[in-house]
Design goal:
Elements: E1 2-11, E2 17-26, E3 29-34, E4 44-47, E5 52-55, E6 57-62, H1 100-107, E7 110-115, E8 123-131, H2 137-140, E9 141-151, H3 154-162, H4 170-192, H5 201-204, H6 207-210, E10 216-220, H7 223-236, E11 240-244, H8 252-258, E12 261-264, H9 282-289, E13 294-296, H10 308-317, H11 322-329, H12 331-336, E14 354-357, E15 368-373, E16 376-380
Parallel strand pairs: 1-4, 1-5, 6-7, 9-10, 10-11, 11-12, 12-13
Antiparallel strand pairs: 1-2, 2-3, 5-14, 7-8, 8-9, 14-15, 15-16
Length: about 375
């Protein structure tokens, strides 16, 4: 089915601003975007009357469905704290797709999220990318696995010192990370030689990391923890992303030098622990200045996913360019997740994930009028 959304102010996620544009979609995909488009016959036409259209927003670092807000202990399925190294667990096995946060995401123009284990463990398990609409996890998956969770800094120290077991220091965290990756490398060599007679799930799920099929996505706030993550990635020749990157502004030149992908946030949160002391929007401004590619995250439920757009707007107020802010929620977020071939911008052939806004998405008074995933309306605003 052909659908054309005309007279729209289109922000395509790539930095292009089409004031009186048309978005033409066919079934699940985008057919054409531009100012002057010859519409084919038998097309359904929707006049946007100057409303804005953007790509569906992407939050690259969340715990939707595995850390359910307002449920208490029963909804906390995001940290398997029985031991500090758990590469064998998968976020998809703990996601509750009925959680209210998925609806909040759709109502806020967020169409894609990466859901991951928490940061209690040095290695926390596999993560996956989801559409924010659906009732069955398997039908919502965009990509699985999309990364392996790693964590440095205060969280593993606090959890396991309380249990009186390793690791209790940053040195211990790094050592345990190295030991596990070394064991996985040895397992890989033996498997390639045909010497593995009985597979081990923990090691099997680390093989995609060693083969650079997925990155190690590392929770790291402090500058020294960030550099430790990069150091270990270089030692084992694996891909790494830096998640949170609170003190990234202190080493922005080094991040640029290493070409590492970064997610920043949750910047709207309080300074609840020591490693958040220098938290602020100045991190994003410094990363932009040094050409470091970054995305913006809420780390839901630390900050509700409905504040993703608000976070970007605050960053603009503190000096981030509007173009970079939008890319951090769209095309750059898609690159962070390696799904840029299908999502993150309004381009021919990509999934028809888009949002119609009553005004500019970064204006506090703007309302999401309708959210679409793969060409289907998944939320429509109704006046009370």
């Amino acid at each position: 089915m052909l659908q054309a959304y005309i007279n729209a102010h289109i922000l395509d996620g790539l930095g292009n601003d089409i004031v009186k544009g048309t978005l033409l979609i066919e079934d699940e995909h985008i057919l054409q975007v531009g100012e002057e488009i010859d519409l084919p016959p038998n097309v359904s036409i929707y006049d946007c009357h100057g409303d804005y259209i953007t790509p569906g927003f992407i939050d690259v670092h969340t715990h939707l469905g595995v850390h359910e807000a307002g449920v208490g202990e029963e909804g906390r399925d995001f940290n398997e704290t029985s031991e500090p190294v758990t590469p064998h667990i998968r976020a998809i096995d703990g996601v509750n797709p009925m959680e209210r946060a998925f609806q909040d995401a759709r109502e806020s123009g967020v169409t894609t999220v990466q859901i991951m284990p928490g940061s209690a463990n040095v290695i926390g398990g596999e993560m996956a990318i989801f559409k924010t609409a659906g009732h069955i996890v398997d039908e919502m998956i965009v990509k699985s696995p999309s990364g392996m969770k790693g964590a440095f800094g205060e969280n593993p120290k606090r959890i396991y010192s309380g249990k009186k077991m390793a690791p209790v220091t940053r040195m211990g965290i790094a050592a345990l990370m190295r030991q596990t990756l070394m064991k996985a490398r040895d397992y890989q060599f033996r498997k390639e030689k045909g010497e593995i007679l009985e597979r081990e799930l923990r090691m099997e799920q680390l093989l995609p990391v060693l083969k650079k099929e997925i990155p190690l996505r590392t929770h790291a706030h402090r500058a020294d923890d960030i550099m430790t993550a990069i150091r270990i990635a270089d030692e084992f020749k694996i891909n790494v992303t830096i998640e949170h990157c609170t003190e990234g502004h202190l080493i922005a030149d080094k991040l640029a030098e290493h070409g590492v992908q970064v997610s920043v946030g949750p910047t709207m949160s309080t300074r609840s622990k020591v490693e958040l002391d220098d938290k602020g929007y100045h991190t994003m401004v410094a990363l932009e200045k040094h050409g470091v590619p970054f995305s913006i995250t809420t780390d839901h439920p630390v900050i509700g996913i409905d504040y993703l757009t608000t976070t970007a707007a605050h960053a603009i107020k503190h000096g981030l360019s509007e173009v970079t802010a939008l890319k951090a929620l769209t095309s750059q977020a898609a690159r962070h997740l390696s799904i840029e071939a299908m999502k993150g911008s309004l381009e021919k052939g990509k999934d028809a994930d888009f949002v119609i806004w009553s005004g500019h998405p970064f204006d506090v008074y703007t309302t999401v009028k309708e959210t679409f995933i793969e060409g289907k309306s998944v939320y429509k605003h109704t006046s009370s």
